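User: Sequence in, structure out. Go.
Assistant: Echoing your sequence, followed by the C-alpha cells.
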Amino acid sequence: MTRTTRLQELIRLLRHRQEPMPGPALAEALGCSLRTLYQEIAVLRAVGIEVVNEPGQGYVLPPEVTLPPPALAEPEAAGQGDGALPEPAPAPAELVFYTNPLSRGGIVHWMLEELGVNYRTVTLEYGAAMKSSEYIAINPLGKVPAIRHGDTVVTEAAAICAYLADAFPEAGLAPSPAARGDYYRWLFLAAGPLESAIALNTLGVTPTPEQAMRLGCGDYWSLMETLAGAVANRPFIAGDAFSAADVYVGSHIGWGMQFGTLPRRPEFEAYWAGLRERPALRRCEASVDLALAGGA
C-alpha cells in the first residue's frame, strides 16, 4: 500500500464512525505499525485534517471532513504527474531508555511497550557503569531508570511515565487535562508517600504517632487502606480507561505483592489480575527473563 493510499484509507475508516477507533485497531486495519500510524496522522494534520485523539478511546474525524484534500489525491486524479505528496512529518526524536533488568526500570519498560513507539535500550550494570561520567551527565544520582528523548532528559519512574504519556498523546495513556485529578493524585501518591512508607516498613522502622505526623508518607497501614480503597471494584485507577497511572500504581501493587512489600489484599489481587495479562506487560516480562538468562 502506498502512503497516498494509506492516508486515503485512514480517512475512509474514520469518516463514517461516530465512536472513536482505538489506535491498535486502526493500525491493524491499515496493515501498519502504531509508529507508522502516528506518522500518518501527523501528515494529515500537516495538510489541515485535524484527526482528534480521544484519550483512552481512540481517534475520530471531525464531521466536516468528507473527502481527501487535493494534496492527498492520487497523482493522476490531482494532475500531479510527479506524484508529489505533502512533506512527511519530521523524523521523531530518538528515544533512549537507560535501565537495568533488576530495577524500577521495569515500570518505564512497561510504559514504553504500551506506547508502541521505537526506543533504544541501554542496559547499565550496577556499580561503575551507573557512576560513569557519561551516565552521570544523564542522571547525577547515578541511578536508573532514565530516558533521553531528543534533547530532553527525564529521570524518576513516575515523572518518566507522566512525560511519555504527554509526549505521545496518540497512545491515549493520559486522561484529558480536565479529567486528571485522580490521575495525578494516585500517580504521585505512589511515587511519594507509598514508596517512602514501603521503604520504612521494609527496614523495620515503625514511626510513632508523633513521628508519623512529621513524615510526608504518614502511617504504612493507613496508606494500605487508602490504596485499597482507590482500586476496590475498579479496573483502572484514574477513570474508565487504562493510563500511565495504572502502569505506575499497578507495578507497585503487582511487584509489591510478589516480593512481600505489600499485603495480598483482595482489592490488590483483583486490580492486578486485570492488568497482568496486558500484552505490553507480558513482552516486558519475557524480555527481562531473556536478559536474566543471559540471552540479551
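User: And one key feature?
Assistant: The chain has three domains: 3-78, 95-170, 175-282.
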